[in-house]
Structures are given as C-alpha cells and as structure tokens.
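Our working data are protein records whose layout never changes between entries. Getting from the letters to the tokens is the skill we practise here. To make this concrete, we reproduce a full record directly below:
***
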Amino acid sequence: MLKQGILHPQLLRVLGETGHMDHLMVSDSGMPQPLDKERVDLAIVPHLPRLLDVLAAIRDTLAIEKVFVAEEVKTVSPRYLKKLLAVVEPIGCPVVFIPHAELKAMSQGDTLRASVRTGECTSYSTVIIQAGVPYGGDDLT
C-alpha cells in the first residue's frame, strides 16, 4: 500500500505514462473534456478537490517544463492566479498565458495525453501542463 504522495491509481498510471512534450490538462469542473482522451475524474462535489491541490501533487510527481493558463484569469480571477503562481514557482518553469479559446483548442489536440477533472469552480482555472524530463546537462559519472 502506498503511504505518501498520489494515492489515486489511475492518476499515478497516467503520470507514469506521460512522456516529454506530452500535455496533461488539469481542469475545473466545467471545462469541456475531450471525448477521445483518457479522463481521470476526481470531482466529487463543487470545490472538491481543489485544482491547486491536485496541481501541487502532480508538480511533486511529474517533471513539468511549461504550464499554459488562460489569459483571462488575470482579470477575472486574479486572487486564484496569485495562488497558482505560488504552486508553480518552486519548479521554475515558464507560465504561458494564452486566450481561453486557444487553451480549449489545446485541450482537444493530438498532444493531450489525458485530462484530470477536479471539482474546482473558479473561472478560468484550467491549466495544461507540458511534461518535461527530470534531468539535464552532462553525464556526472
């Protein structure tokens, strides 16, 4: 039995199968889900689980090189954005702001590995993660 970290078996499998440059959507409860991709549905009731809690758990498990966020979050949900940036800051990856319509198009694209639906109810809170690699530089041995 797992004793720490992500306990959800489907989410762990999806993260393990996610490769460099794959996209993973972590969505609010209302974001349209792609019909042709795997969905890890964590939503229980409104606001549970919160997207930022799920994102923090994923951040601690998956190598992330970029996070895409809807541009509209800056004006519609600025308090949420501040919290989102605090979650992403420890990994030092770029946050790329794009129009919400473009984020929706990415969520239906060929590079999307899967979607993770949360119970989040904050407007424009969905993010798309671009997976990275957990190493770099020259051989150290």
In short: The chain has one domain: 20-131. Residues 122 and 133 are 30 Å apart (CA to CA).
